[in-house]
Every structure is written in C-alpha cells, then in structure tokens.
Amino acid sequence: MLQFLLKRKSLIFLAVLFLVSLTLLARDVEKREGGGFIDDLIVPILAPPLQLSTAAVHKIQLLWLGYFNLIGARSEAVMLQKRGAELQRENQLLQETALENRRLRELLGFKKKLPYRFIPAEIIGRDPSSWFRTLLIDKGTDNGIRRGAAVMTARGLVGKIIAIQKTTAKVLLIIDRNSALDILVQRSRAKGIIEGRTEERCELCFVSKNEDIQTGDVIVTSGLDEIIPKGLAVGAVVNVVRNSPGFFQQVEVKPAVDFSKLEEVLVVLP
Q1: Is the CB of residue 251 less than 8 Å from the CB of residue 192?
Q2: 122 and 195 housed in the same domain
Q3: Which one of 54, 101, 194, 253 has the fewest beta carbons within 10 angstroms of its own beta carbon?
Q4: Following DSSP, what letter does each residue of 16-67 receive, concatenated?
Q5: Residue 158's closest CA among 135, 131, 184, 125?
Q6: Phi-psi region for residue 144, left (φ > 0), alpha (ψ -120 to 50) or beta?
Q7: Domain enclosing residue 44, as ranges
Q8: What are the tens digits of pLDDT across the range 77-92?
Q9: In angstroms, how far is the first alpha carbon of the chain from the final one?
Q10: Residues 59 and 158 grouped into a single domain
Q11: Per-residue pLDDT tens for 169-210?
Q12: Which of 113, 144, 164 is where one domain is finished?
C-alpha cells in the first residue's frame, strides 16, 4: 500500500490540490449574495467537496484536540503517579517513626521501673557468620560501659558485653553456644546455668532431677554475676525431660526476647 502511494504521489498531490481549489471556490461562491445563473449552477456542483472538506476539517480539529487532551491526561497521570509515590514514602517514614517512638517509650517506661542506670544503644551490626551470635552497638567506654555489662530490652535479657571500644561494643547473645549465665527458676528458686543452643532456644543445664521445674516457669538472672543484676527476665520453660540418662533433667527454655527484631537495647551500668 505504501509503495502504491509513493508511485502515485504526484497524482495524489494534484488531486488534493484540485480538491482544495474546489473547496475554496465553493466557499467563495457561498459567501456572495445574489449570485447569477453561473453561481446557481456551480453551487450544487461544488457542494459535495465543500461538505467533504468541512467534515475533514472538523475531523482533523477533533483529532488534534483529542491528541492534546491525551498528552495532557498522560502528563497529569505521571504527576499523580509521582505524587502518589511521594505520599507512600512519607507514609512509610511516618509509620517507621511511630514504631520507633513506641519502642523507645517502652524502653523508657521499663527504665523508670528498675533501680539501675541504663544507657540506651542502637544496634549497628550483626555477626554474619553462623559460628557466633553477636551484635554491635553504638555505645562504648566513652559512655561508661564496661566489659561484662548486661544488655537488655523491656522484654528481657539480650546478652552481655564481651568486647568494647571507645564508641562501640560487641554483645554476646544468650542464644550463643559460648554463652553461660547463672539463673533462678522464679517459682521454685531452683538454680542452674542457661546456655545457648539455637536462634530460638536455650537449655537450662545442671538442674537436678529432684528440682521442681514445670512448663511455663519463668527464668530470671540470679545476680551471682558481679555486674548483671538479679531478677532480669531470661525466658520461660517450654519443655522438661526428667527420664533422661544422668543426674540432671533436660530443660528447654524459650528466650523472652525476639532476637531477629532487635533494633534498640539498654546497657546496664555498674
């Protein structure tokens, strides 16, 4: 089709030119008043091209206006889309700020309840390896923190400081296999050592089979450590096995803290 039009472009151009000329002539005759015999003869002949040209012009105007309306609508849609994305980002920032304020208020309320001095700290790093479960916080010796200090949240004990610099400190979590902490069973006052096992569980070790330990018992710090205070929540018993070989019962403990969601902590000062 395109080749056909290109071969006959001269003929098409002459036809268009002739049609335009007839249209102009028809419009001129139409505007004159009191035309003679020739005008009466020409007007019926030229009426069809006049109507055709008028319809074509009207169609072109509609297409032109539609094109500009489409361009305007697309531009407006792009602007609305950008504005919607900006509002969504602002909403996300506001939600994140609200959650952070809620966590900080929780820590502040917990801080006021206990007779200890605390330093709030933010978690700025995690150990990427699977051998150790540690955190890096943004407070150090410049803030009065010392090695062995307890790290906690409003829900319970997180771990203790094992390495410290001027502005940062490393926290060994209680779920790490290298962690060992003296504890008490809050209800029965049975004593033992809690050690890390997995990301979600700890094990209460060296507890005699004669001790009364039940599922749901709360585990707290014993205070035998020189720095870690007594009575801090560690977790709750979720499973007890007394018929195991040996002198001790097997006690599984779920930590009070969800370590995967930690963002802010409190460091207990001496």
Answers
A1: yes
A2: yes
A3: 101
A4: HHHHHHHHHHHHHHHHSSS--HHHHHHHHHHHHHHHHHHHHHHHHHHHHHHH
A5: 135
A6: left
A7: 1-113
A8: 777 777 777 767 766 6
A9: 91
A10: no
A11: 999 999 998 888 999 999 989 999 999 987 788 999 999 888
A12: 113
Are residue 193 and residue 153 in the same domain, yes or no? yes
Q: Residues with Cβ < 8 Å from 245, sequence gap 6 or more?
A: none
Element (H, E) at 165: none
What integer best gives the mean pLDDT of the chain?
76
Please indicate, yes or no, whether residues 9 and 130 belong to a single structural domain of this protein: no
- pLDDT greater at residue 54 or residue 218: 218
Strand 157-164 with 180-185, pairing: unpaired
Domain boundary among 113, 135, 157: 113
Say yes or no: 133 and 230 in one domain.
yes
Strands (E), the chain: 118-126, 134-137, 150-152, 157-164, 169-173, 180-185, 191-196, 202-205, 218-221, 233-241, 250-255, 264-268
* Residues forming beta bridges with residue 195, ordered by sequence position: 180, 203
Say what angle helices 9-31 and 37-113 make with each other, to 10 degrees.
110
Output the pTM of the full model. Answer: 0.59
User: What's the structural domain count of the chain?
Assistant: 2
Q: What are the beta bridge partners of residue 264? A: 122
The CATH number covering residue 142 comes to: 2.40.10.340
Structure tokens at 168: 């940062």
